[in-house]
Amino acid sequence: MPIVLGQHFIGGGRSGFGQPLHKSIDATTGEVLPYSFYQAIDAEINAAAQAAKAAFCEFRQISTVRRAEFLDAIADELDQLDDDFVAIVCQETALPTARIQGERARTSGQMRLFAKVVRYGDFLGARIDQSLPDRKPMARVDLRQYRIGIGPVAVFGASNFPLAFSTAGGDTAAALAAGCPVVLKAHSGHMATADMVGCAIVRAAERTGMPKGVFNMIFGSGVGEGLVKHPAIQAVGFTGSLAGGAALCKIASERPQPIPVFAEMSSINPVVLLPGALVARGVTIAGELAASVVMGAGQFCTNPGLVIGIRSVELDAFTDILKEHLGAQAPQTMLNAGGLRSYRQGVEHLLSHAGVTHLAGKTQEGKQAEAQLFKADVSLLLNGDPLLQEEVFGPTTLLIEVADDTELEGALRALRGQLTATLIGEPTDLKRYQWLVPLLEEKVGRILVNGYPTGVEVCDAMVHGGPYPATSDARGTSVGTLAIDRFLRPVCHQNFPDALLPEALQNANPLGLKRLVNGVWTSDPIF
Amino acid sequence: MPIVLGQHFIGGGRSGFGQPLHKSIDATTGEVLPYSFYQAIDAEINAAAQAAKAAFCEFRQISTVRRAEFLDAIADELDQLDDDFVAIVCQETALPTARIQGERARTSGQMRLFAKVVRYGDFLGARIDQSLPDRKPMARVDLRQYRIGIGPVAVFGASNFPLAFSTAGGDTAAALAAGCPVVLKAHSGHMATADMVGCAIVRAAERTGMPKGVFNMIFGSGVGEGLVKHPAIQAVGFTGSLAGGAALCKIASERPQPIPVFAEMSSINPVVLLPGALVARGVTIAGELAASVVMGAGQFCTNPGLVIGIRSVELDAFTDILKEHLGAQAPQTMLNAGGLRSYRQGVEHLLSHAGVTHLAGKTQEGKQAEAQLFKADVSLLLNGDPLLQEEVFGPTTLLIEVADDTELEGALRALRGQLTATLIGEPTDLKRYQWLVPLLEEKVGRILVNGYPTGVEVCDAMVHGGPYPATSDARGTSVGTLAIDRFLRPVCHQNFPDALLPEALQNANPLGLKRLVNGVWTSDPIF
Q: In chain B, which end has fewer C-beta atoms inside a 10 angstrom radius, N or C?
């Protein structure tokens, strides 16, 4: 059995002054696992935030080459987490082995992608406007801008991606890449996983000579508020529920010095079925959509929770097949008992709603989640019924039938902000319904054509974000390389002698950056 | 006399359903000018926000060429505002004619710079990751990202730049460049100016065929809250007091859908006098610094409100000369009676503080502002006395003497976030005090060497921003081309047929953009 200390990670060491109150749970059996975790006391929350602050100035100034080495070292350490590790993650989350193996590779791949971003240096946003001493009526002084890390970042791990969105996940990778030390609030659903990943990060930090407080992590319940309130913390990354994210936003906005929060919260990810597609391949779509709804017990932020189609015999036929698919699903174990409880409540709310019809799905009882299909009247959406817009985190989806294009437009306009929207259509559909694209652009972070929203590629072009309540700030993404932008801020240097400038802005361009010099992009040095 | 209707600008027309309660005031004489302005009623606030919303979808999709033409047309209209206009601005603000003529040119120049930014298209942030159908273990789908306007922006004009930071100022230019319609809350200190500039913008909008609600403006007191609360408004730009900015942030964060606020608020802009410079040119520095302190009656966000030096005979000599300069200044008329009242109170607070000594300046009485010089014990800063960190908006500055480098470091670390910090030093000073640069980078938006912070160049590299309370979001700037970033958000298109994509992302690259394609920057089309 691997050693899992269950103590907090503070400034390169471990600490456990509080009580070992928290036990890791086997998500499948509900049994208590032999790992205990300490409740962080206030002094430890403070120490973790202070350690991050103490590390900030050194860490943000470490060369991009060494910062990238650190991220690559984390990736290597993650890859070396072995079968015992994978077994523990599976125990804590009830996720299958292949999924965790894949997620491990995705998480290390994500770290390496950010290492590339750091090496490339575009994120530094170097801009130089040289002096124009002869300009009339006034000379221009030399001005040079680059971006630095915003400061220590508090990261809240997500339950549903114990690796890729948690301890060494996307927010941590983006923050470290930006030069920001991290204080992680370990998710209670996979604390042994968090402990082992935390050790991997610390090994990488030691191996590459990073300052000790570059990564910190605390365990415990109710410790998030103190962390977000701590004056050393300068930004927050969060993935979780709307209630949780909104609470953190409130705390952050009421600080004496308010700080930005990037919370990825709630999305029902509408899928629009266009008429031609239902004619051409309704049967196939029903099967694919059902698979997307139940994948991973529906525990994805981008799970398709709303399906919209225009009334037709083809939609009826499609609905019948979707009913069959979802009615025939085997129950699945969810990530934890809390998640199952929330799912049961969500299903009950839909069942008890007068405007909602239950189309398929076994009675939700026992220890596993049953897939469900509901149908709601479009008037609920048009009249702003909140229930319809609330994410039910699990293998369920809700069908809405609209009378015509006008009602389709109204239904889509009535939606709140979403992570994704999907158009399923034949080429003729897409031509006829091209007007949906700008409408959806204003509602979501990502629009898919003929695909399913589950599955989020980690790359330059990905946006995993969107208008409220999908996220708390539509200008960010929590997946993909653009995620680094959330944790950077610009600083301008005016009339600096060359030697006093940060390397990114020196005339010789020692980092070989692409820089905007006097309005023109160039990698050339300045003579 | 020019025609000044005093009615709100809503959807291309004018509206005045409320009472003409507000009068424009001659800032120098206090006399009421013959221009009346209507108090916006709730229905008009709503109509203005709705007009902006109605214009958004069309405006944001107008080609970048036409959007740039619109900005250039505004610039042309601003340039054509004649001597009568300049005379009214001077009447309303007590600012000298040459300053207003210069500010007019700066404001139109700023519009043209944003037109260039729009034509160039970099702000669209186009990123393309093409599909990798053969990738193992999973294929990659085609993903394409660009940035769109965030939605209608509420802009609050500043008192101290009636043109450059007001109706057609930096926030308006950045929002329009981003594709966001604007609802302006006209500043009560220069309503006739606002009216005439508003007409200029509307003429430009008509001339270039923009949607009617692209620019809207309301007059009145207490109308800002309703505007920021309006669900159509998606972001806020503000320049003003800390109290005003913080109030808007609170309103914005408590909306059912919280929105970002970019408030530029309070900064005392520390100037650090390094020892060698005082030896070499203390007399010159005293004269230059005094000029920066009193320029424009000290009514600049970047006015140097705090001067720090290390105890020495040279600092004493410098102080004596600075006393002479500031003691000898003629009084100046401020922008408005409210500003003078605030200044008098600020001066009184400093005078009545036990730890603060008055070094120079005539008794603050009468209708004009008297330049003042104070000295405070460094302990006040080190112990977090709030008075020392509060901006006194006017021609005053406060000197702090530190014992040594350690105390200098402590004093700078004790500062809150600032727009600027300045180092005055000889080459040997700058070498010896190089350690100050990273410290200041974490405190401010712009660091100057051997210059004075008043005077903010509008260019690519400028940062007019900084950590709280200098601004509400250190990741933005309200001057320079990077200001556009505040009003943009990314959207991703997955697996789109080429014809369905926005032009920025189409294979042929019809806009000729520099795009990040499969991790490499290129302007080439994709074949």
A: C
> Could B447 and A491 be called an inter-chain contact, meaning their C-beta atoms sit closer than 8 Å?
yes
Q: Do A495 and B148 touch (CB under 8 A)?
A: no
Give how far A278 is from chain B: nearest CA, Å.
19
CA A10 to chain centre: 24
What is the distance of C-alpha B314 from the center of its chain? 36
Mutate to test the interface with A, among B130, B261, B487, B494 (most CBs of A within 10 A): B494
Pick from A127, A482, A497: CB nearest B461: A127
Supply the pLDDT for residue B178.
Answer: 98
CA atoms within 13 A on the CB side of A492: 37
> Which residue of A143, A441, A480 is in closest CB contact with B459?
A143
In this structure, which amino acid lies at residue B492? Answer: C
Residues A167/A103, Cβ–Cβ less than 8 Å: no
Nearest to A460 among B129, B445, B473 (CB): B129
E strand spans, B111-175: 127-129, 143-149, 153-156
User: Rounded distance, CA B391 to CA B374, Å?
Assistant: 13
| pLDDT tens-digit readout, A343-386 | 999 999 999 999 999 999 999 999 999 999 999 999 999 998 98
pLDDT at A1 over 80: no
Contact list in A for residue B129 (CB cut-off 8 A) is 457, 459-462
- Say what the pTM is: 0.97
- Closest residue by Cα to residue A272 from A58, A420, A166: A420
Residue B322 binned pLDDT confidence (cut-offs 50, 70, 90): very high
Question: Packing angle between helix B64-79 and helix B170-177, nearest 10 degrees?
Answer: 160
Give yes or no for a contact between A270 and A306, defined as CB atoms under 8 angstroms apart: yes
Interface test with B, best of A475, A479, A515 (most B CBs within 10 A): A475
Q: With contacts defined as CB-CB under 8 Å, which chain A residues touch B502?
A: 437
Chain A residues with CB inside 8 Å of B260's CB? Answer: 473, 475
Cα separation, A265 vs A242, in Å, equals 5
Where in the sequence numbering do the catalytic residues of B fall?
264, 301
Structure-token pair, residue B278: 């005082």
Nearest residue on chain A to B459, alpha-carbon basis: A129
Q: Which of A111, A469, A116 is nearest to A264 (CA)?
A: A469
Please answer whether residues A267 and A160 qualify as being in contact, where contact means their C-beta atoms are separated by less than 8 angstroms: no
Residue spans of alpha helices (H) in B459-518: none
Strand pairing of A127-129 and B182-185?
unpaired
Give the pLDDT band (50/70/90) at residue B192.
very high
pLDDT reading at A275 higher than 80: yes
Distance from the B257 Cα atom to the nearest Cα atom in chain A, whole angstroms: 6
Assign A455 a pLDDT band (cuts: 50, 70, 90): confident
- Rounded CA-CA distance B464/B170 in Å is 11
Are residues A500 and B465, on separate chains, in Cβ contact within 8 Å?
no
- Pick the closest to residue A41 from A12, A13, A21, A11 (CA basis): A21
Section B204-223 average pLDDT:
98
pLDDT for position A416: 96
Q: Average pLDDT, stretch B420-432? A: 98
Catalytic center residues of A: 264, 301
Residue bearing tokens 């809350």: B185
ipTM: 0.97
Binned at pLDDT 50, 70 and 90, residue B388 comes out as confident
Instruction: State whether the Cα torsion A191-A196-A200-A202 is positive or negative.
Output: positive
Whether the pLDDT of residue B226 is over 90: the answer is yes
For chain A, give the mean pLDDT: 96
Compute the count of residue pairs across chains A and B with CB atoms less than 8 Å apart: 202
Give the helix/strand (H/E) hosting A377: strand A372-377
CA atoms within 13 A on the CB side of B516: 22
Task: Give the pLDDT confidence score for residue B313 in this predicted structure.
Answer: 98
